[in-house]
Amino acid sequence: PTDSVDLATRYLSFIVDAYVPASSRFHNFMSYARQWLDEAGSEDSHGRCLWALGAVSSSQLRKDIKDCCRGLFDSALCPTTNFSSPRAWAFSLLGMPGLDNSAVASYQLQVELSNRLMSIYELSRTTNWEWFEESLSYDNARLSHGLLAAGRALNDQAKVHAGLKTLNWL
What we know:
By secondary structure, this protein is an all-alpha fold. It has helices at 4-18, 43-57, 63-76, 86-95, 104-124, 141-154, 157-169, and strands spanning 19-20, 25-26.
């Protein structure tokens, strides 16, 4: 049987290969011939990479694997400031709480992205619609999840309350 270190190494090698240093973004689509089909993946796929990298960085895996993930996470964080996708914000936030808040850039971005989620929640919600957007689509619970994770990490009870309220509504 394959152990977790072998799997982590295999999956991490894919993410390392997908990383484009010039843009600090990740590819998302690869052909059967192992050629990248895009210049950069979607905002959502980038956020999912950050989520995975942050989770591994705070895991019990070997230090070299965790250090590689943390380095990639830090290098790929900057583009999220220009993202417009609320789900990409949430995915990115999910990778942050396990990290120590000593890195000023990740802390500030955690505040910024969670504030963006709170802002769209405040703009969209009504008496009968406790949600971030005017409609439901895909991965809806991740919006609440990301806000909850950020609220807990930042000790921001308003964000925790909004995350729980929207999750309960959903």
